[in-house]
Amino acid sequence: MAAQAAPAPADDLIEVTVDGKPVKVPKGSNVLQACDAAGVDVPRFCYHQRLSIAGNCRMCLVEVEKSPKPVASCAMPAGPGMNIKTSTPLVKKAREGVMEFLLINHPLDCPICDQGGECDLQDQAMAFGSDRSRFTEVKRAVVDKNLGPLVKTVMTRCIHCTRCVRFAKEVAGVEDLGMTGRGRDSEIGTYVERMLTSELSANVIDLCPVGALTAKPSAFTFRNWELASTESVDVSDALGSAIRVDARGPEVFRVTPRLNDAINQEWISDKARFQVDALRLQRLSQPLVRGAGGGLEPATWPRALAAAAEGLARARGHELRGVAGRLADVESVVALKDLLNRLGLAGVDGADSVLLVGTDPRAEAPVLNARLRALALAGVPFASIGAPLDLTFPLLAAGDVVREGWNGFAVLADAAGTVGALDLGFVPGAGARGVAPRAVYLLGADDYEEGDVPADAFVVYQGHHGERGAARADVVLPGAAYTEKFGTYVNAEGRAQSTKAAVGPPGAARDDWKVLRALSEVMGAPLPYDTLAGVRARLAEVAPHLARRGALEPPLWLGADALGVGGAAGKPAADPLATRVTNFYQTDAISRASKTMARCVRARQNPVPGL
Amino acid sequence: MSGVTKALAQGLGKQTWREAVSNGGWKVLIDGNLGSTLVEHQPGATLVGTDKHGNRYFEKMDTQVGRNRWVVYAKASDYRGQDPANVPAEWHGWLHASVDVNPANHDFTAPIYASNIVGNSTTTVSRYQPKGSWFKEHKRNWLKYQTWTPPKA
Amino acid sequence: MTVQVLSVASRAFATNSHDIFNIHRHEPHNNWETEFDFTKENMAKAKEILSRYPENYQASAMIPLLDLAQQQNSGFLSLAAMNRVAEVLGVAPIRVYEVATFYTMFNRSPMGRYHVMVCGTTPCMLQGAKGIYEAVSRHLGVVYGQTTPDKLFTLSEMECMGACVNAPMIAVADYSGGVEKFTYTYYEDLTPEDVVGILEDLKAGKKPKVGSQHRHNAEPSGAVADGKWVEDSPGANITLRGPPPGPYCRSA
């Protein structure tokens, strides 16, 4: 990573000529990278910049002067003074030959293929494919594999680039996939039927250059050209992976990773990718007020706000409590904090060794785990304190890691909203301890402690999914999910990033800060901002670092007494240190509502049928 | 008309004639196809079998190829009864000479993916209705999300 | 009947592997419950094989170990056998499956006692391998990929085994005696009568003549032609059956 960031010194560069254009590339680059550096597009299937080089698709053939044959540019190191030609008749003919061989056994089922429209083979066949076939024999057919509830396979379409095999081995660290057989009978698969046991498994869908591996949950539901893309940030874990949200009309259909070298490279976890089906299920789309019969009944916004204001006004001082949930964005947290006050209330890659304390990065942030794994394989010693883990890479004893001058302390938060709320100082004030609250404001909080919400308290729940919190509430105010609002989230490293609205909130639901702003008006203590820019200006006042988007900030709350639990500090906990995330697939209101995630949980209980 | 007379004379037994009439045989006068089925073909044809819907299948191998196997629908008098979609898969194969196995005395195991043959339901109540059709139970529900239902108090 | 059709069809689509599928299907004799472990002697052998390779290249011992496991397991690699090899090597099982499915000499379905492999590569074909196959097939009543009902012979086709000078030839692997008595024998210079005799001898428990059936080694004393052994005329130390013809365009 460090090498990637710093430009290579001049003497580590070599000069090659690509199509008559001189270009300088670092030593050790291959010819394909040199062509990329020169801005020349070389077709490819098996080469991927984050995976090892296989050189088996032969699509990237180029002509190199003094070489008798076309060379596979991905597997050929660039040498100084090399003269590379990519647009000669020889190259064209060679690529056409390769394409013809690839198409021999590829079915002509583009009209019913989910990859259609974003298929490398389809695109490149437009450039190098023949318009008719010379093949008169029988096409081969391959048995489809069952890889679990996320990845759908149509193995006859496979062109054996082995990207998925290399991903499983090198990045995910779960060696499930392989290529069995030989020649035209070779097939990608697991040999014995079993599901992919990696939390990153669905990245093979993006890697697959053809339609052999596609998304099972969203099979046959959309064509990629129907979707409108929005660049956003994932909130399913505290890593804040860069994602692209693809929506058609009011529905989110797909989440794919975006390139962000500093955070997720180009991978996202299965949860980030496939929990989006829950954005259509169990939604809070209208305000609800607990009626005379004891049940929640639909209400208009004015009525609901009035009911909430009336209930909250009953609490005095510290009897009013706010709880921010796992998915609360910083804007709504600051609005809630301001409201409560008005009502009378007070980096990982630089590490030289890593100690994991009571955490399971594989469950809490699988993409981070893949990067830790890369570090571990590069020789950085890792150790873990807490419950025994299977992290797909070897761990040492803690004593071997903690040394003099050690720089590895980082706290991995397990929810997207946690760090932001802590950065804003959204922690109980000193006076609040020991006072039983009479009114509680749950801001998307479904994982609250039972003691925080006494049975006789008046509860307002504001959120986007109906669950434990909404069921307990006396007034439910519908808010927006992360794909429906412009919200700032601070990731575990302290990086403030913004989600962007890809679709609108359903029904009568509104942006969370707007709901709080409206409530403050009704309660007679109006907040001083009424635009998003206003909220963010206020945010910059409270926590200036949150206004600097994308920049890495040292977590303010670490080391300070901001956590405010000094009384308990220093006393070792009686329970063994363990991760709070026991079920990776279901951690928050969205993923718990997702049918796909439920299927994953079920499949995980029996990953190898019959064993 | 002479053909009919001849056929009647040649051996259209009483039984067959009664059957023909009960199936709407009088329509022979206005329906040439039915006439050719009942009067021209049936004499000398073998009744090969009957399927679960009551359709009867005939064979007369010395007639012209392509017209040597045929079906007489159970509800031939009803225009909706004359429905090729009523023919089960095994009989379809026999009719179209895909197989020579007589499904009547062959133990036919339906594949797991076979659907129940109910015939064409066009113009009946159970016909297919596209989403948004006026006759659909929850017509025109274009809501793309499902609202949470609070638990009962 | 179905098996026969499937098997014949598979010859048209598969490589020369004995197995039809390159994926595992649970069967009564080969599933998760099937057990396999190296015997004590074979484990010592496996350790010896492993010691031939450097510490960081232990996976290089995969092919010898799979061979060992196959010999111990009466000629085929069950799922358990492959898993055990993976365990011994410390690699993921899929890496072993990949190797075992790639090489046609690893069998993944049960074999007869003798694995009869008929060479089908060009030199043997030119010298009458087709007749050899037909004779074997007729004699045993099976086609490529099948095992006789008495579980004695499994018939396969194989690519060139390098004995082209004594073409046509067959190889027979004897899996009846485990690792110690395992033999892999070539029978060369075959006529259809020879090969039937060899099969009969094997069936009777006798040991047929190994190597060329009609000469000592590969000395130029004759060759198989049209399913018969043809001696060279004395003194003519050539393998040609007559003077070589000139190019057809020159012949008068």
TrEMBL record, chain A:
Necessary cofactors: [4Fe-4S] cluster; [2Fe-2S] cluster
Coiled coil: none
InterPro entries found in the cross-reference section: 2Fe-2S_ferredoxin-like_sf, 2Fe-2S_ferredoxin-type, Mopterin_OxRdtase, Mopterin_OxRdtase_4Fe-4S_dom, NADH_UbQ_OxRdtase_75kDa_su_CS, NADH_UbQ_OxRdtase_ferredoxin, NADH_UbQ_OxRdtase_Gsu, NADH_UbQ_OxRdtase_Gsu_4Fe4S-bd
UniProt record, GO biological process: ATP synthesis coupled electron transport
Limits of the 2Fe-2S ferredoxin-type domain: 12-90
Keywords: 4Fe-4S, Iron, Iron-sulfur, Metal-binding, NAD, Translocase, Ubiquinone
Domain 4Fe-4S Mo/W bis-MGD-type, first and last residues per copy: 227-283
Residue intervals of the 4Fe-4S His(Cys)3-ligated-type domain: 90-129
Pfam families the record matches: Fer2_4 (PF13510), Fer4_NDSU1 (PF22151), Fer4_Nqo3 (PF22117), Molybdopterin (PF00384), NADH-G_4Fe-4S_3 (PF10588), NADH_dhqG_C (PF09326)
Keyword Protein biosynthesis (UniProt): no
PANTHER family: NADH-UBIQUINONE OXIDOREDUCTASE 75 KDA SUBUNIT, MITOCHONDRIAL (PTHR43105:SF13), RESPIRATORY NITRATE REDUCTASE (PTHR43105)
NCBIfam families: NuoG
Similarity-based family: Belongs to the complex I 75 kDa subunit family.
Protein name in the entry: NADH dehydrogenase [ubiquinone] iron-sulfur protein 1, mitochondrial
Source organism of the structure: Auxenochlorella protothecoides
The organism's taxonomic lineage, starting at the top: Eukaryota, Viridiplantae, Chlorophyta, core chlorophytes, Trebouxiophyceae
UniProtKB/TrEMBL annotation, chain B:
Keyword entries, A-Z: Electron transport, Membrane, Mitochondrion, Mitochondrion inner membrane, Respiratory chain, Transport, Ubiquinone
GO CC list: mitochondrial inner membrane; respiratory chain complex I
Keyword Electron transport: yes
Location of the protein in the cell: Mitochondrion inner membrane
InterPro entries: NDUFA12 (IPR007763)
An annotated GO BP: response to oxidative stress
Keyword Metal-binding: no
Signal sequence, start to end: none
Membrane topology classification: Peripheral membrane protein
UniProt main location, coarse: mitochondrion
Pfam families the record matches: NDUFA12
The family this protein is said to belong to: Belongs to the complex I NDUFA12 subunit family.
Protein role: Accessory subunit of the mitochondrial membrane respiratory chain NADH dehydrogenase (Complex I), that is believed not to be involved in catalysis. Complex I functions in the transfer of electrons from NADH to the respiratory chain. The immediate electron acceptor for the enzyme is believed to be ubiquinone.
Protein name as annotated: NADH dehydrogenase [ubiquinone] 1 alpha subcomplex subunit 12
Automatic annotation (TrEMBL), chain C:
Pro residues: bias regions: 242-252
Recorded GO CC terms: catalytic complex; membrane protein complex; mitochondrial inner membrane
Domain of life of the source: Eukaryota
TM regions (residue ranges): none
Molecular function via GO: 2 iron, 2 sulfur cluster binding; metal ion binding; NADH dehydrogenase (ubiquinone) activity; NADH dehydrogenase activity
Coiled-coil spans in chain: none
Keywords: 2Fe-2S, Iron, Iron-sulfur, Metal-binding, NAD, Translocase, Ubiquinone
Necessary cofactors: [2Fe-2S] cluster
Segments for region (Disordered): 207-252
Keyword Transmembrane attached: no
BP GO terms, sorted: mitochondrial electron transport, NADH to ubiquinone
UniProt record similarity statement: Belongs to the complex I 24 kDa subunit family.
Name of the molecule in the record: NADH dehydrogenase [ubiquinone] flavoprotein 2, mitochondrial
Source organism (scientific name): Auxenochlorella protothecoides (Green microalga)
